[in-house]
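# step 3/5: fold
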Amino acid sequence: MTELLAPAPPGMSFLATFVVEVAEPVEIGSTPEGTRRIIPIVGGRVEGPELRGTVLPVGADFQLLSSSTLTELEAKYAIETDDGDRIYVTNFGLRSGTAEDIARLVEGEPVPPERIYFRCTPRLTAAEGRWSWLRSRILVGTGERLPGEVRLTVFVVD
């Protein structure tokens, strides 16, 4: 019998760190799926080796607290690069931890990032030009929720 070897995982290249500034949440309330909230996005910064820009004060993170230990995230917003292009961002993510830690995050309190699983799959869409290649790439990231902001470290899957 032939021995099966696990294939090598895909490589990743650092794209940028996104610091997304957020306002106080708009609480929608309890629904059959869980508790819904909308977190307005009010600004921020993107810093990478090549991709640099400003998070525009448009958009929001549409959250579903599907259990006491899991939050499903769907953020939609835009960035303007330092070279003047605009990029539309759609970011799906999961944030999980103990019920106590998730409750602290919901209240806007800091929780050490190593106690929270926060992963995301951003999709960046740009018009034809310098950043249009982002439309055809898979991106993954890790996240950290801090008071007043979300910090994402985003990678391109090679």
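# step 4/5: annotate
Residues 12-157 form a domain with the Porin fold (CATH 2.40.160.20).
# step 5/5: archive (pending)
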